[in-house]
Design brief:
heterodimer; A: 461 residues; alpha/beta; six-stranded mixed sheet; 31% helix; globular; B: alpha+beta; nine-stranded mixed sheet; six-stranded mixed beta barrel; 23 strands; 55% helix; flat
Chain lengths: 461, 910
C-alpha cells in the first residue's frame, strides 16, 4: 500500500529531447507527475511513447532537457555528476529489461550482493536473510547469473539494488522477456516488497503488471494521457477456449512437420528441445505456438525455417531445401535489422535484394503506413524504440507476401494497441494466402489466432 | 535462525570487495581482450626498449668499425709506451731501466678495465744475417716479443717460438726451417737454426701488434728499398745476440690491446683511465714521469724517443660524431613508435570497454564513478600488460640483434631497456585506465555530448598549421644542423616530424571531406545495386569511424610512400653526386707522364684530365675543364639520364665529329650566361663550338661550369702551344668501372702506384646522410607496419561487425543475397575506403617528399641538385597489396558469416 501522502519522486513540465543523426527526437514533452512512496506505479504506453526516457531520468541516468525532477531530496536536473553517482548508488536502483544485463557475468549472486553493500556503505532497508527468503534466491547465492533462470535473475537483481540501500526501484519492462509463470513470480515478489515500503516504478506493456499496479501513468508521444483501463477481457484459459477452430483438415497443408525431434547440447547438458512434434499449416491460417520460455518454440521455428536440421521426422515446407523470402519469411526475436539502413530501407531490403524494388515499392509504403512507421521511415533503427523496430521487422517479413511467415514473439515489445495493429497486419497477410505461425507467450494475442498449438518441454500438448 | 542470519550477513557484507579482488585475473576469461592489451603493451615496450638497445648496438658497431681500422687496431686503441733508446745489455736485471719501466707500466695499466694483457717487445739495431758460407746476406733486426710469432703470417715452419726469418731475407739467403744462418755484427757472429719463415711486414703490418715499430720496419716511400725486417727470436737467443754481438741500444715497447667486443661505455671507461695514465706518464715532475720520459741516448727524436699513446680518444670522438647523426632520427622514430604504440594501447583499451559494454552500463547505473572504473581497468590490465611488456623486451632484443647494428650492447643500455619496459607497462596500464574512464563517461549523456563535440572539431587544421610552421623552420634553418663545438652534422628532427604532421593533417582533412561528400550523396545512392548500396550505407552510417579508418590508412600508407621516396631520393642523389665527383666507380690519380694501362688491365677504364678553374670563357666566367677519351668515356663513366636531354653516347659522340676543321667542339655542363664562342686555356685562346649541354657531368666537383672536350682534339687545337693537360693543378685520372676489390687488383698490376685512389663508396660515406637514409628506411618500415596493423584492425573490425550482424546476414540470405553478393558488398566497402586512403596518402606523400628533398643536399658543392624520386615499384605494388587485402578481408568476413550456426544464435533468444 502507498505510504500515506509520502512522495518518492515528482517531475514537473519534464522535457527530454535527443539529438540524432537524422534530427531531433522529442521523447518527453512536458510531463508533470507525482510518484507516491511505497507504491507500485506502472508507466504504460505504446512503444516510442517516452517510457524508457522517463525511467532513465528517474534513475538519474540522464539529465532532462528542461523541467524539474526531484527524487527524494535530490533535484536531478541540477545535480552534479558526483551527486548523481551517489544518487544511483543509494537512492534509486535501476533494473535493465534483459535480466542478464543486471550482472557482471563472472561474479556470483553473493558477490553482487556484497558489492552492492560495498558501493553504498549503507545498511539495506531489509535484513539480508529476510530479503533472500522473500525473493526466493537464498539457495542460489553461489551461482553465477548464467546459471539462473530469467525470473531468478530478475529477482536477484532486485535483491542487489535493495542490498545497496535503494528505496526506489525503477525497472524497464522487467517481465518482457519472461514467460508468464516467471513473470507472475517476479510480480508477486515486487508486490511483497511494495507492501514492505519499497517504491517501484515500472515501464510495462504487460496487462498483468498494470492490473497489480497502485498507480498508472500512460504516455503517448511523450505526453501524459488519462489513466488506462488496465486488465483485459477474461482469463487466459477463457480466451484459449474462445479461439477459432482449426481450418479445414482436407485442404492440403502448406507446411507439414511430422515426428520432428531435435536434441542439442548445452555444455554438459543434453537438451531435448523437440520430441515427436507434428505441425500442419494450411494456406491463410494464422496459428499461435504458445509456451513458456525454453519450451522449444524457437527451436521449432528454426527447424521449419531450415536453420536447424531435425534429428528425426519429416518436413515439407515452401521452397523445400532452399526456401527464399517469398517462400518463408521470418520475424526473429533478435530482429536482425541493419543498423546502417533507415527503417524504410530495412523494410525494402528484401525487394532490393530480389531486384524488384521498383515493382513493389508501394507494398513497402503500404506496410509502413499500416504498422505506424511512416513517420519514422527515415530514421535508423537505433533512433526508434524496440517496439517500432519490431514492427519494422514484421513489415520486412510481409513485404514480399510470403507463403509462410514464421514470427517469434512479434509483439513482445508492443503495447496492446500496436499488438492489435501487428496482428491485423498478419491477419491481412493470411487473408491473402500467407500461412502464419506465431510463437508467443502473450495471452492477449489469442483472439487474433485461427488456432493455437501449445508446446511444453519440446512436445505439443 | 539467528545463526543463519549471522551467516548470511557475514557472507553478504564481509570479505574482500569482489570488484577488486577478482580484477587481477579477470581478463583470463576474455582471451581476445587479454591478447589485445598484451599486444598493445608489447608494441609500446618494443618502441621504448628498442631505442637504448639500438643506440648502444650502433655505438658498439661504430666503435668496432673504428677499432678494426688497420690504422687503429685493438693494440692502437689500447695503451702503448715505447722508448727507442733503451740499453739492451742487462735489460733483465732487476735494477735495469727496462725492468723499472716494465714494473711501472704494469702498475699503471693493469688496473685499466678491458685492457690487457700487457705484451712487451724489444727491437734491436740492424744486424747482418747470412748463409753459413757467407755467400748471401741481408740486414735484419733482432726482435724478441711476447706472442710475436702469433702476429705474423707464417710462410713455413711450425710452433710459436724459435727463430723466425722474414720471407725477403729467407728467400735472398735461400734458407728455410732447419737451415743454419749466421747473424753477425762488426766481426762478431752467432749461428742460429731457422725454425720458420713469415711474410714480410714492410708493405702492410696487418696487425696492430707491430705499431710501435712501424716507423722502423714499414716501407713509406715508393722508391726506397724495404727496411730491415725483424728476425724474431726467443729471449735467451736475443740475450745471446745482445751479449755476443754487443748490441748497445734498442727499442723496447709495452702495449696492451683493448678487449674485443667493447661496448661504448667500456670505451669511455678505458679512455678516461688511459687519460689518467697518460697524465702520469708525461708528468716530468713525478717519479714515474721522469722514468718514462728519460732519454738513454744523447738525442731523442720522434722516431726513437719515449712516447706513450692510445688512439682510444680519437676512436671515441669519431664514433661519437657518427653516433650523433644516428641518435637524432632514432630518437624521433622512437617517439613516432611510441605514439603508434600508444594509439594501439588506447584502441585496445577502448575495444575492451566496448566489448564489455553491458558491464559498463550496469556499473554506471549502480553509481560507479569513472575513477573507480579506471582503477578497476588498470588492475585488470596489469597482468596482460606485464606479459606484453616482457614479450616486448624480448622482441626488442631479438629485433636489434636480428636486423639492427652488430655492436655490443652495454649493460647500462640493457638496464635502461628494462627500466623502459617497466615504465612502458606502467604507461600502458595508465593509458588503459584513462581510456576506460573516458569511455565510461560516454554512458553519461552530458559527457557524451561533449565527446561528440570534440570529434567534430577539425583538429587536423592544427596539424596542418604545425606542418607549415615546421616546413618554414626547415627552410630557414636548414635540414642539416652542424654543431660547431663537436663539428658534428646531424639531420634535424623536423625532417622526420614534417611528413608525420603534414600527412596526418591533410589525410584527416581529406578523409573528413570524403565522408562529407559521401553523406551528401546518400539520397542519390538509393538506386545503386545491392552491393554498392550496402557498402555506401555502411560507410555513411559510421562517419566518424570511416573518417578514422580512411585517415589512419592514408597516414600509414603516406608515411610508407613518403619515407620510401625520401630514402630513394637520397640514395639516388648520393649515387649521382658520388658518381659525378669520382667520375666512375673508382678513380685513380696518376702522373701525366705515366702510360695508360694496357689492354689486359683487369677492368674497363677511361683516362681523363681534370682541372679546376682551368680557364675563362669569352664571357669572362671561369670554368673547370675535363678532357676525356671520347671512345671509352661512355663505357665507364657514371651517367644518369636526368643529367641531359639526350643520351650520354649521343652527347659525347659530338665531341669528335668526322670533320676536324672549325672550332673545338665542347660540351658545357651547368652552363651559365650566354653560349661561349672561345675559351682561354693555358695561354692559348681557342675558338669553341658548344655541341651539347648538361645539368651535371661526371667529373664535376664544383658548381662552376665544366667544359668537356676530347683530349686528343684539344691537343690538336692547341697545336704547338703549351700543353694544357700537363700543367700544375691538372689531375690525370683513370676512371674504372669495377668493384673496389677488382679495381684494387687491376691497379696492383700497374708498374706505378697511383697517388690517390678514390671510390664512390668513400664519397658516399657521410654519416649524417647515412643516418637520414636509415631513419627514413626505419620510418618506411614503421609506416608499413602501422599500415598492416591498421589493415588488420579494419579486417578485425569487419569480422566483429559481422558477428553482431549474424541474424541480419542469415535473413539477407533468405531475401535473395548470396555469399558472393555479401562478399561483393564488403569488398566494395573496403575498396572504397582503401582506394580513397591510398590515393590521398600517395599524393600527399609525393608532395611532402618534393618539399623536403631539396632541403637535404648531402654535398651542396657537387652537382647535381637533390633528385626527387617517386618510388614507382611501391606505387605499382601498393594497389596489388590493397586489392589482396580487399579480397582477403571480404573472404574472411564472408567465411565468418558462413560459419555461424544461425540456429544456435536464434535459439539463444528463446
Amino acid at each position: 500500500m502507498p505510504t500515506e501522502g509520502a512522495v518518492a519522486a515528482r517531475c514537473e513540465d519534464l522535457v527530454k529531447t535527443y539529438r540524432t543523426a537524422t534530427g531531433e527526437v522529442r521523447a518527453l514533452r512536458g510531463i508533470t507527475e507525482t510518484f507516491p512512496a511505497g507504491a507500485l506505479t506502472a508507466v504504460v504506453g505504446p512503444s516510442g511513447s517516452g517510457k524508457s526516457s522517463l525511467l532513465r531520468l528517474l534513475a538519474g541516468l540522464d539529465h532532462p532537457t528542461s523541467g524539474t525532477i526531484r527524487v527524494g531530496d535530490i533535484a536531478v536536473e541540477r545535480a552534479s555528476g558526483r551527486t548523481l553517482r551517489r544518487f544511483r548508488r543509494t537512492v534509486v536502483g535501476y533494473l535493465f529489461q534483459r535480466p542478464s544485463d543486471n550482472f557482471l557475468p563472472h561474479l556470483t549472486v553473493a558477490d553482487h550482493l556484497r558489492l552492492a553493500g560495498r558501493l553504498t556503505h549503507r545498511p539495506p532497508r531489509i535484513a539480508p536473510q529476510e530479503l533472500l527468503e522473500t525473493l526466493g534466491i537464498a539457495h542460489r547465492l553461489d551461482h553465477r547469473p548464467s546459471e539462473l533462470s530469467g525470473g531468478e535473475q530478475q529477482r536477484a537483481a532486485i535483491a542487489e539494488v535493495l542490498m545497496g540501500g535503494a528505496e526506489t526501484i525503477v525497472a524497464d519492462e522487467p517481465t518482457a522477456e519472461l514467460d508468464s509463470a516467471s513473470a507472475r513470480h517476479v510480480l508477486d515478489t515486487i508486490r511483497l516488497l511494495v507492501d514492505a515500503g519499497v517504491t517501484f516504478v515500472l515501464a510495462t506493456h504487460d496487462a498483468a503488471v498494470m492490473r497489480r499496479a497502485d498507480e498508472a501513468l500512460e504516455l503517448d508521444h511523450g505526453v501524459r494521457r488519462s489513466r488506462p483501463s488496465g486488465g483485459g477481457p477474461g482469463t487466459f484459459v477463457d480466451r484459449v477456449a474462445a479461439a477459432p477452430t482449426p481450418a479445414d483438415e482436407l485442404e492440403p497443408p502448406i507446411l507439414l512437420a511430422d515426428g520432428i525431434s531435435k536434441t542439442y547440447r548445452r555444455g554438459e547438458e543434453v537438451v531435448h528441445a523437440l520430441e515427436d512434434v507434428e505441425v500442419r499449416l494450411r494456406q491463410g491460417e494464422l496459428v499461435g505456438l504458445i509456451g513458456r520460455s525454453g519450451s522449444g518454440k524457437t527451436t521449432l521455428l528454426n527447424v521449419i525455417a531450415g536453420w536447424e536440421r531435425p534429428d528425426a521426422g519429416r518436413l515439407e515446407r515452401p521452397g523445400e531445401d532452399a526456401p527464399g523470402w517469398t517462400d518463408i519469411a521470418v520475424v526473429p526475436q533478435k530482429l536482425g535489422l541493419l543498423e546502417e539502413l533507415t527503417v524504410r530501407e530495412n523494410v525494402e531490403h528484401p525487394l532490393r535484394l530480389a531486384g524488384v524494388l521498383d515493382d513493389r515499392d508501394d507494398r513497402a509504403e503500404e506496410l509502413l503506413e499500416r504498422l505506424g512507421l511512416a513517420h519514422l521511415q527515415d530514421r535508423q533503427p537505433r533512433e526508434t524504440s524496440l517496439g517500432e523496430q519490431q514492427r519494422a521487422a514484421v513489415a520486412r517479413a510481409l513485404v514480399r507476401n510470403p507463403r509462410l511467415l514464421l514470427a517469434d514473439e512479434p509483439t513482445g515489445h508492443q503495447d496492446a494497441g500496436f499488438a492489435n495493429v501487428v496482428f491485423e497486419a498478419l491477419r491481412d497477410a493470411a487473408a491473402q494466402g500467407t500461412a502464419c505461425l506465431v510463437a508467443t507467450h502473450n495471452e492477449q494475442v489469442v483472439p487474433h489466432l485461427d488456432r493455437v498449438l501449445h508446446i511444453a518441454d519440446g512436445r505439443l500438448t | 535462525m539467528r545463526e543463519e542470519e549471522a551467516l548470511a550477513k557475514t557472507r553478504l557484507t564481509g570479505g574482500p570487495n569482489p570488484l577488486w579482488s577478482r580484477a587481477p585475473l579477470m581478463l583470463l576469461r576474455y582471451p581476445g581482450l587479454f591478447a589485445a592489451l598484451a599486444v598493445g603493451a608489447m608494441l609500446l615496450v618494443l618502441a621504448a626498449a628498442a631505442y637504448p638497445l639500438f643506440v648502444s648496438a650502433s655505438a658498439g658497431e661504430l666503435l668496432a668499425e673504428r677499432i678494426d681500422d688497420p690504422l687503429v687496431t685493438r693494440f692502437g686503441a689500447g695503451a702503448r709506451y715505447r722508448n727507442g733508446t733503451m740499453p739492451l745489455d742487462g735489460a733483465s736485471d732487476p735494477g735495469s731501466p727496462v725492468t723499472k719501466i716494465d714494473r711501472a707500466f704494469r702498475r699503471l695499466v693493469d688496473p685499466v678495465p678491458h685492457v690487457g694483457p700487457i705484451v712487451a717487445s724489444t727491437l734491436g739495431p740492424p744486424v747482418v744475417v747470412s748463409t753459413p758460407d757467407g755467400s748471401r746476406s741481408r740486414e735484419v733486426r733482432p726482435l724478441v716479443g711476447d706472442e710475436a710469432v702469433a702476429h705474423v703470417q707464417r710462410v713455413a715452419g711450425e710452433g710459436d717460438s724459435g727463430v723466425w726469418m722474414p720471407q725477403l731475407a729467407a728467400e735472398a739467403l735461400g734458407v728455410g726451417p732447419g737451415d743454419a744462418i749466421v747473424v753477425s755484427e762488426d766481426q762478431r757472429d752467432v749461428t742460429l737454426t731457422v725454425d720458420g719463415v713469415y711474410r714480410d711486414i714492410f708493405r702492410e703490418p696487418g696487425d696492430g701488434y707491430w705499431r710501435p715499430w712501424n716507423d722502423e720496419i714499414v716501407l713509406y716511400c715508393e722508391d726506397c728499398p724495404p727496411p730491415p725486417q725483424p728476425l724474431i727470436v726467443d729471449p735467451p737467443v736475443f740475450d745471446e745476440l745482445v751479449s755476443t754481438l754487443r748490441l748497445q741500444r734498442g727499442g723496447v715497447a709495452w702495449q696492451a690491446a683493448v678487449e674485443p667486443d667493447l661496448t661504448f661505455d667500456d670505451a669511455v671507461e678505458i679512455d678516461r683511465a688511459l687519460d689518467a695514465v697518460a697524465d702520469t706518464v708525461v708528468d716530468a715532475s713525478s717519479h714515474p714521469g721522469r722514468l718514462f720520459q728519460r732519454c738513454y741516448t744523447g738525442f731523442c727524436g720522434r722516431v726513437n724517443g719515449p712516447s706513450f699513446s692510445s688512439s682510444m680518444g680519437d676512436v671515441l670522438s669519431q664514433a661519437q660524431r657518427r653516433l650523433a647523426a644516428v641518435e637524432s632520427p632514432a630518437e624521433l622514430l622512437r617517439v613516432a613508435g611510441l605514439l603508434v604504440a600508444l594509439v594501439v594501447v588506447a584502441a585496445a583499451g577502448a575495444f575492451a570497454m566496448s566489448a564489455r559494454r553491458v558491464e559498463a552500463s550496469l556499473l554506471f547505473a549502480r553509481g560507479t564513478g569513472p575513477l573507480t572504473v579506471g582503477a578497476r581497468a588498470a588492475l585488470e590490465a596489469l597482468f596482460p600488460c606485464l606479459v606484453g611488456a616482457g614479450l616486448g623486451l624480448v622482441a626488442a632484443g631479438a629485433l636489434v640483434s636480428a636486423v639492427g647494428p652488430d655492436g655490443q650492447i652495454a649493460s647500462s643500455a640493457t638496464q635502461t631497456a628494462v627500466r623502459a619496459t617497466l615504465l612502458g607497462a606502467a604507461v600502458a596500464v595508465l593509458t588503459i585506465a584513462v581510456v576506460s574512464a573516458v569511455s565510461f563517461l560516454r554512458h553519461s549523456e552530458l559527457h557524451r555530448a561533449r565527446l561528440r563535440f570534440l570529434t567534430k572539431v577539425p583538429w587536423e587544421l592544427a596539424l596542418i598549421g604545425l606542418a607549415i610552421l615546421v616546413l618554414s623552420r626547415l627552410r630557414s634553418e636548414g635540414a642539416l644542423l652542424t654543431d660547431a663545438a663537436s663539428s658534428t652534422t646531424r639531420p634535424s628532427s623536423l625532417v622526420l616530424l614534417f611528413p608525420v604532421l603534414f600527412l596526418a593533417g591533410f589525410a584527416t582533412l581529406a578523409a573528413r571531406l570524403a565522408v562529407t561528400a559521401l553523406r551528401a550523396g546518400r539520397r542519390r545512392s538509393a538506386n545503386l545495386p545491392p552491393a554498392p548500396f550496402l557498402a555506401f550505407r555502411r560507410l555513411v552510417d559510421a562517419p566518424q569511424l570511416t573518417m578514422l579508418l580512411v585517415g589512419a590508412v592514408g597516414l600509414c600508407l603516406g608515411l610508407f610512400v613518403q619515407a620510401q621516396a625520401m630514402a630513394d631520393s637520397m640514395r639516388t642523389t648520393m649515387d649521382a653526386k658520388a658518381g659525378v665527383y669520382v667520375g666512375a666507380d673508382v678513380q685513380a690519380r696518376i702522373d701525366y707522364g705515366y702510360e695508360s694501362p694496357s689492354s689486359d688491365f683487369g677492368a674497363p677504364y677511361t683516362r681523363v684530365n681534370r682541372q679546376y678553374q682551368a680557364g675563362t670563357f669569352d664571357t669572362g666566367a671561369t670554368f673547370d675543364l675535363l678532357a676525356v677519351d671520347s671512345e671509352t668515356l661512355t663505357d665507364v663513366a657514371y651517367w644518369d639520364d636526368r643529367f641531359a636531354d639526350e643520351s650520354f653516347e649521343d652527347l659525347v659522340g659530338r665531341l669528335t665529329p668526322d670533320d676536324r676543321a672549325g672550332p673545338l667542339p665542347v660540351i658545357v655542363a651547368r652552363p651559365r650566361g650566354g653560349e661561349p664562342t672561345q675559351i682561354s686555356l693555358a695561354s692559348s685562346t681557342l675558338p669553341v663550338r658548344v655541341v651539347g649541354e648538361a645539368q651535371a657531368f661526371p667529373g664535376m666537383s664544383s658548381l662552376r661550369p665544366l667544359v668537356i672536350v676530347d683530349a686528343e682534339r684539344l691537343l690538336e687545337a692547341v697545336g704547338e702551344g703549351v700543353n694544357p693537360l700537363d700543367v700544375p693543378g691538372a689531375s690525370n685520372e683513370l676512371w674504372i668501372r669495377a668493384s673496389e676489390e677488382e679495381a684494387a687488383d687491376a691497379l696492383s698490376t700497374l708498374p706505378y702506384v697511383p697517388s690517390v685512389v678514390l671510390t664512390t663508396q668513400e664519397v658516399k660515406d657521410i654519416p649524417h646522410i647515412a643516418a637520414v637514409i636509415d631513419a627514413f628506411l626505419v620510418l618506411n618500415a614503421l609506416g608499413l607496419a602501422a599500415a598492416l596493423l591498421v589493415l588488420a584492425a579494419i579486417v578485425m573490425y569487419l569480422q566483429a561487425r559481422q558477428r553482431s550482424q549474424v541474424v541480419s546476414y542469415g535473413l539477407s540470405l533468405r531475401m535473395g543475397m548470396d555469399g558472393k553478393g555479401h562478399r561483393r558488398a564488403v569488398a566494395a566497402e573496403l575498396m572504397a575506403m582503401l582506394a580513397v586512403a591510398a590515393v590521398v596518402g600517395v599524393a600527399l606523400a609525393i608532395v611532402a617528399a618534393r618539399l623536403v628533398v631539396p632541403l637535404l643536399d648531402p654535398l651542396a658543392a657537387v652537382p647535381p641538385d637533390p633528385i626527387p624520386v617517386v618510388p614507382l615499384l611501391s606505387l605499382v605494388v601498393l594497389p596489388v597489396v590493397l586489392a589482396f587485402v580487399v579480397l582477403v578481408g571480404a573472404s574472411l568476413t564472408e567465411r565468418r558469416a558462413r560459419k555461424v550456426d544461425l540456429g544456435q544464435v536464434m535459439r539463444l533468444a528463446d
